[in-house]
Design brief:
The complex is a heterodimer of chains A (about 250) and B (about 650).
Chain A lengths: L9 E8 L10 E8 L6 H11 L19 E4 L2 E4 L11 E5 L6 E3 L2 E2 L1 H11 L21 H11 L6 H5 L1 H5 L5 H12 L8 H8 L13 H5 L6 H21 L1
Chain B lengths: L3 E9 L3 H12 L4 E5 L15 E2 L13 H11 L6 H20 L10 E7 L2 E7 L9 E2 L9 E2 L5 H15 L3 E4 L1 E9 L2 E9 L5 E11 L21 H8 L5 E2 L4 E8 L9 H4 L3 E3 L6 H5 L9 H13 L12 E4 L4 H7 L2 H10 L9 E10 L2 E3 L12 E3 L4 E2 L11 H23 L6 H20 L7 H15 L3 E2 L1 H17 L14 H25 L8 E2 L5 E2 L5 E6 L8 E6 L17 E2 L5 H6 L1 H7 L21 H4 L6
Parallel strand pairs in B: 1-2, 1-11, 2-8, 11-18, 17-19, 20-21, 22-25
Antiparallel strand pairs in B: 3-7, 4-5, 6-7, 9-10, 10-11, 12-17, 12-23, 13-16, 14-15, 15-16, 23-24
Helix pairs in contact in B: 1-4, 1-11, 2-3, 3-11, 5-15, 9-10, 13-14, 13-15, 14-15
Classes of the chains: A alpha+beta (about 250), B alpha/beta (about 650).
The complex binds flavin-adenine dinucleotide and FE2/S2 (inorganic) cluster.
Flavin-adenine dinucleotide binds next to α1, β2, α4, β9 and α5 of chain B.
């Protein structure tokens, strides 16, 4: 059992509540208090609040280890993963809101899944391979440095924090947003993908793509996986301009 | 949502097994619908960090590896509980599955030619990788294998694999419903027709009728409460709804694996790779107890052996005190900041994010926790459930059964893909040969039963127990009495206590009645199934009077091949009070039962000859409901192919 030492802080949680399916529900802030425990994360805190104080409270966790991307929320105004937020890193009053830019399911729960699925379909986020898989053949060699680079950009967990932090994505639903741009870059750099820069042109070189970004770059600051989103934008802009040049030549 | 919908193939579960299976069926022309509690990429498969076993033999420490050695390691690791034909199918197909993932875009870590420095048993060892292997898929050691065999994508193997497979699902245009839960299977006369579903956005219930249905719902670690590395969504509904049919048996539910290094107190897994890369385990005296207790493999002995020694240390008072209970230390300090922030970055992040420490400066509190469910929905080698046509299972939810009583680290990710490919093809063939056969009446009858259950929960008021307290009590019983060391009297007490909890469920009261999915109601609807899984695991453990793999009985320390070389099967009809246990042979024996090569070695020999044992396997499994397979039993076993495998690889055979 987790022990609550007498010297531990009393935490105050101010949590956004709204159940769109309940005609009687109005958006409001609700306050809960909880004694802090050693190593307490918001995963632990929110579950305790739900189990002990308010069984209707909605939020999402799955892995509780910052790998699945379920638990993005606004913590004191900043989008981040709740499961990897230690209460000891926060002041004793903690304000929680759902991520903006996504459809609200209820309270702190938003529909990131649908957003990311649509994005994945739009950018065709799969390897457009050059030939069919041959089960008899050994694998094509790949330089490990390249494998590492692809892995690095493949690390996005689709939590939606960057989308929530993005001024453009919050006002324009069709903007691919940093996560979408990163996904594009991931496949662009993968030599197994047969798409040429020209094929990417429509997706990338438009206001829905890199040219929609107005350069606030909050995304890189909030990314829980510390993806180099600034570099991603730079890389895509160069590729997009290159593609525009190729088109003119044609 | 319409109340009754139809599809060709209904796949319950959007992890690696479900999605790989769905891909295969869709590629063969079937209309497939996937249900998942969460967006598929958030399935627990994404959490696997360490690697995926496949005998490619690419690096120096893997040289000479073969599917035969992989087969031998898998069967020995299972403590002979595995179906050896399935282990053979698995080992032979794992290389294809791994290479196919490369084709789908997984950025596997590759062989770097020239001088590489590896941490092996705590030492820095320089090895020259030959130029002709440059850029092939690299391997690492993952415990319990003769060669380095685990293929890995840095420290995010499961994530990379799941994203690649989900990309293929997107490409194929397969319908995916996330935040959708299967609550019951629709079936009659030994034929499955789909499932009753509930939407976790709205709380609406409905029916999806299908020609074929697949259970790929992953493990059920949450019956151990918070003593598990599993995600919060691993609550075992898939196994529970199969059990509720009363027809389909679950296999080996007592075979539960514990992971040596769950972060304490959160239970988050700290990957095996840490020990593979040279991490040490220390007790409160700062002693490396594994060196003394397992001189040969040390920290890299199989995980049940390591877990058991760790619990032994804790029992002997050598654990480190903590308000949440005693733990041990994982020492990674000597690996250094660079290694930890690159090669083991996920571990570094876990320490930073969940403990607030730097692992190159401080020790990491760990203790064993539940990790993997070897048991599950019992299926034949085609993945078809015993006793139920048109119902299949794959991945951790299934008891296919290549793991027997102990899964080797890295074998389960590979299983999800190998099984997904094979079972998906069988499912597609079945669906092509069949129509949707249920009538509306049957569908509505099952739907109504679910609706009545929901209504009953919402109607009950008063002072009854709350569902989360019941869950916590279940977790304490399971970890305390159905854990790593087991004993008859404790198991009996666990059965009694779980039984009482199960019965108390009828008095439990919800406090939330808000419209929508209602998180408390959603959980309550799973709880009976969870308690039933816990009960059959405890009863199975009590009845199995031997120690085999992860099932370790203090009162029966030897493996008993004379009486217990068998698989536990259990059935428990929805409305029946008692589960029914029975036993079947593990499958055809090719590698004769022998010494596992690690851990304690004692066992009671079989009385029957291998031939005598094998003679009755088919009929005895058929008596238990095994359905006919596409190819006859034994067709893929390649009997005796392992004979000189160890000599060929320059290993000393046993
Ligand atoms: C922390 C951790 C690390 C691991 N590391 C490794 C490793 O390095 N190597 C290795 O080989 N193995 C590893 N394993 C084991 C391996 O990850 C799992 O066995 C494997 O990923 C299971 O895949 P699956 O597809 O069977 O299930 P999961 O990935 O768990 O997917 C289950 C799916 O079923 C859905 N679902 C569940 N119930 C329902 C329902 N009632 N209705 C609808 N949908 C439902 C869920 O939403 C999910 O989509 C690890 C496990 C853990 C816990
Ligand atoms: S719960 Fe998975 S990222 Fe937080």
């Amino acid at each position: 059992m987790a022990t609550e030492s007498d010297s531990s802080r009393e935490l105050t949680f101010e949590i956004f509540r709204f159940n769109p399916l309940d005609p009687g529900s109005e958006p409001r802030m609700q306050t809960y208090t909880l004694r802090e425990e050693p190593y307490m994360t918001l995963f632990r805190a929110l579950n305790r609040i739900r189990e002990e104080q308010d069984p209707g409270l909605q939020f999402d966790f799955a892995c509780r280890s910052a790998v699945c991307g379920s638990c993005g929320m606004m913590i004191n105004g900043r989008p981040t993963l709740a499961c990897k937020t230690l209460t000891s890193d926060l002041a004793s009053t903690i304000r929680l809101h759902p991520l903006p830019a996504f459809k609200l399911i209820g309270d702190l729960s938003v529909d990131t899944g649908t957003w990311f699925r649509e994005m994945g379909s739009r950018v065709e986020a799969w390897v457009h391979e050059r030939q069919a898989f041959d089960p008899e053949a050994i694998e094509e060699p790949m330089d490990d440095d390249l494998a590492v680079a692809i892995y690095e950009s493949d690390r996005c967990i689709e939590c939606g924090c960057c989308v929530a932090s993005c001024g453009v994505a919050n006002t324009r639903g069709d903007f691919l947003a940093p996560a979408g741009m990163n996904r594009v870059a991931r496949f662009m750099m993968d030599p197994r993908d047969g798409r040429s820069t020209g094929d990417w042109f429509e997706v990338v070189a438009s206001d829905e793509g890199v040219f929609g970004c107005i350069g606030l770059m909050a995304c890189q600051d909030v990314c829980p996986k510390e993806l180099p989103l600034l570099e991603v934008y730079g890389y895509l802009r160069r590729r997009a301009l290159g593609a525009a040049f190729v088109r003119k030549q044609r | 949502m319409d109340k009754i919908e139809t599809t060709d193939v209904l796949v319950i579960g959007g992890g690696l097994a479900g999605e790989r299976c769905a891909m295969e069926a869709a590629a063969l022309g079937q209309r497939v619908t996937i249900l998942s509690l969460v967006p598929p990429r958030r399935s627990h498969s994404c959490a696997a960090q360490g690697g995926m076993q496949a005998a490619l033999g690419n690096c120096v420490k893997a040289a000479g590896d073969s599917t035969d050695l992989h087969f031998l390691d898998t069967v020995r690791g299972s403590d002979w509980g595995a179906d050896q034909e399935v282990a053979r199918i698995f080992a032979d197909n794992a290389p294809v599955a791994v290479r196919e993932l490369a084709h789908f875009g997984v950025p596997w870590t590759r062989v770097r030619p020239g001088r590489n420095v590896y941490h092996i048993k705590g030492q820095q060892v320089a090895i020259d990788e030959p130029a002709e292997k440059a850029g092939l898929i690299m391997h690492r050691d993952f415990g319990g294998t003769a060669k380095w065999r685990a293929c890995y994508a840095a420290a995010g193997t499961g994530h990379a694999a799941l994203y690649a497979i989900d990309g293929e699902v997107l490409r194929l245009g397969i319908e995916v419903r996330d935040r959708a839960e299967a609550l019951a299977l629709i079936h009659a006369d030994g034929r499955c027709h789909g499932a009753v579903t509930r939407c976790l956005r709205t709380g609406q219930v409905g029916v999806i009728l299908a020609k074929a249905t697949v259970i790929a719902t992953g493990g059920f670690g949450r019956i151990y409460g918070r003593y598990t590395t599993n995600a919060t969504i691993n609550e075992g509904t898939g196994a529970a709804i199969a059990l509720a049919t009363g027809v389909v048996p679950l296999g080996n539910m007592e075979a539960v694996q514990f992971h040596p290094t769950g972060l304490w107190p959160s239970g988050i897994l700290v990957t095996e790779g840490c020990r593979g890369d040279g991490g040490y385990l220390l007790n409160r005296e700062m002693e490396r107890f594994m060196v003394e207790l397992e001189p040969a493999k040390q920290e890299l002995a199989s995980r049940d052996v390591v877990s058991r020694h760790m619990m032994g240390q804790i029992r002997d008072g050598k654990g480190v005190d903590h308000p949440g209970g005693p733990h041990l230390w994982l020492d990674l300090r000597h690996l250094g900041e660079e290694h930890l922030t690159t090669k083991l970055r996920e571990v570094y992040e876990i320490c930073r994010d969940f403990l607030g420490i730097k692992p190159w400066e401080e020790l990491i509190p760990v203790r064993p926790t539940q990790h993997y469910s070897m048991g599950g929905v019992r299926v034949n080698k085609d993945g078809e459930a015993y006793g139920m046509r048109g119902l299949y299972a794959a991945g951790e939810a299934a008891c296919w059964d290549m793991h027997g009583f102990n899964r080797l680290g890295g074998n389960s990710l590979a299983e999800t893909l190998v099984a997904g490919r094979i079972v998906g093809a069988r499912v597609a063939e079945f669906a092509a040969d069949h129509q949707i056969e249920a009538d509306t009446g049957l569908a509505l009858a099952f739907l109504q039963e679910t609706e009545l259950t929901i209504d009953a929960w919402l109607a009950r008021t008063g002072q009854g127990p709350n569902v989360y307290d019941i869950r916590d009590a279940m977790g304490e019983i399971m970890m305390g009495k159905v854990g790593i060391f087991r004993q008859g009297d404790e198991l009996q007490a666990a059965v009694n206590e779980l039984r009482a909890l199960h019965d108390s469920l009828d008095q439990a009261v919800l406090r939330c009645r808000e419209p929508g999915a209602n998180p408390e109601l959603s959980f309550a609807l799973r709880l009976k199934g969870m308690l039933r899984l816990a009960l059959v695991a405890a009863m199975g453990a009590l009845a199995r009077e031997e120690s085999r793999g992860a099932h370790s009985r203090i009162d029966f320390p030897a493996r008993d091949d004379r009486n217990c070389l068998s698989r536990t099967l259990v059935r428990w009809g929805h409305s029946e009070d008692e589960p029914m246990f029975s036993y079947e042979p593990v499958g055809l024996l090719d590698l004769p039962p022998g010494d596992r090569g690690y851990g304690k070695a004692s066992h009671v020999d079989m009385e029957l000859s291998i031939e005598q044992y094998n003679d009755s396997v088919l009929t005895r499994q058929q008596e238990q409901g095994r359905l006919a397979t596409q190819e006859p039993m034994g067709a893929s076993l390649r009997e005796g192919a392992w004979h000189d495998a160890e000599a060929r690889a320059g290993l000393t055979g046993t």
